[in-house]
Amino acid sequence: MTAAQANSIEPTRLLEERKRFADARAQLRKGNLTQFSSISEELRDYPLYPYLDFFKHKRYISKLSLDQMDEFSRTNIDSPISYRLYNAWLASLARHQRWQDYVATYESSGKPKYDCYYYWALFKEGQTKRAFAGAEKLWLVGKSQQKACDPLFEVWKKTDAFNETIAWKRTQLAMNNRKLQLAKYLERFLAEPEKSISNEWRRVYRSPKRLQKISRYKQWSSKAKPLILSSFKRLILKETELARSLWPEYEKAFDFTPEESADVYQYFAKILALRYDDNAEYWLNQALTLPGGDVIIDYGIRHALRDHDWQRVKRWLAMTPQAERGSNQWRYWEAKANLAIEQYNTSQQQPLLFDTTAINLANEALSTFPIYDHLEEVTPYTQLLTPHISFMENLVNTNNTNALLPDSTLFLFDSQQLPKASFGELSSERSFYGFMSSEILDKPLQLNHQERVAEQEQLTRILSNPGIIRARELYQINEDSYAKSEWNLAISRMPSEDRSIAAQLADQWGWHHQAIMAAARSDIRDNLKLRFPIAFGSTVSSFANKNGIGDDWVLSLIRQESAFAFQAKSPVGALGMMQIMPATAKQVSKSIGLRYKGKRSLLSPKNNIQLGTAYMGQLLKRFQGNTILATAAYNAGPHRASRWQPKHLPMAGDIWIETIPFRETRNYVKNVMTYQAIYRAHLGQEIKLAKSLQSIPARSPRKVTTY
Fold this sequence. Notes:
The structure is a single chain. Helix content is 63%, strand content 0%. By secondary structure, it is an all-alpha fold.
């Protein structure tokens, strides 16, 4: 079918062809091949005619020959149905034990199930050496493999190719992956002492305090090291103080390699830093001296930020790899550090990090706090010095980390660029840090929007692409999965300029998710109307108003969660545009007096937005109107968001966001805040970041006395 034919199809004819297409599929499902073939012949010029052939072959897949499969693949090389039929055919070959055809045609896609079939087919075809090499590779994983692998594994384990060493390797993989039942199963293949070590490993996993008796592990000497290293991580999580006291004893008793010791020190450093522990700096510095120490630099920066120790922030920033140092993120924090140090140097009357605004906010909040009269007063100096005192007490050699700094990094401590100049450069960019810089300078946020409209000739050219034609038609008949496959394959083969035109087409069709994804991979990233559409606007506005929240916040959250893909399904079970978990949907439905109609109802845009906005409203109320905390809670859960709040004093929003322990949530909140400013522009509102960024309230406020 030519482009001219595709574009000139009369709407009435197209509607009739869609109806006949549905009729043909219905006849095929009933097994009426005569009627199916008759209708198919009428649809040879219909864009989805190849799909009728696909559905027929798939229904009778067991009868498909190698030649027929090859012919279908050649004919439909530009369509994903060639891959879909191929995968279905492979499964059929395995079910019907057509091993010769399987070996002749198989190309690995990285899916263990089909790889197992392939190596089993090799075994059945007499290629034993290759089959058993594949069996070992598939078996050595830290989880249970597909049942399709069982026949291959059974014959392999009865040969000399399988031994106790291989079984012990997999046991270690299983335990490090927390698969205790698999490790228990593997014990039958182990000899002593590995069998006893495996048994003890499972016991100490459940009760890490067993590490207190070091003698039980000394008997196994170096063979116990995998158990010890793995179990110490469990102990660090559950009993940090005990782990801290026991580790030196284990270091003396076992000959750990520098890499093995580094693994434990890094884990100590990361966990303590993520918990905002004052002792984290000691472990961060120790880990830095060991192999692979650069992986904890980000943790060091964030721990220093949480302590408001700007000199330490600069020290850690100086150690970031050259490739990362120029990022917006670290340029912003270097400028903030320089600004704080500059302010301190010009006013010696208050400590470096002492912010009377934060204290005033804390005391104001306490005026209505019910247990105010019973709270102990603390001085700002005590609050300020706690992390520094702890740092000095725990750091063995105070010059240790400074000595690590190469001369090329020392200039960062005497940065010649004024903070205002740094913020000025950043403020020209459309990003979280660019917007934050603009607000620090009290400048308008720079959206850098550029709307570029494709010419009709360009649109027609893209519409002539067979994959785009099929994708559009599949989208029109609500075959979402097939439509996305066709679209994604088509645009993956386009140059950037053509993808931008395709994105505009998808936007015209109301296919916002695909428009957003295509634009992100094109040369029109500055077209904010296209990349941030006001989709389902009336529904969003209605439910947002009902729940006392802003349209801009709702649209920003939807854009982050699914980019308006109303059929979205996450690996963990979240559904719909606002990615609601079924358990949450059930709970929210009950709270608003709505009957929950099951998981499928969450794929309805209206239902999803109704429940999602109700949940957002509940979170906003729980966190007393703070959208930053409510946004973090939507992603990570309200209990975590509450636990991450500063303990006694309010904290600046940018520092709080940067020190969120979960990277996913950290980036999630930054994105939603950034998108919110963009949507405010679209909605004709004042273009600014959320007011909540000014201060994150404390979890347990205390009155602070100033002098």
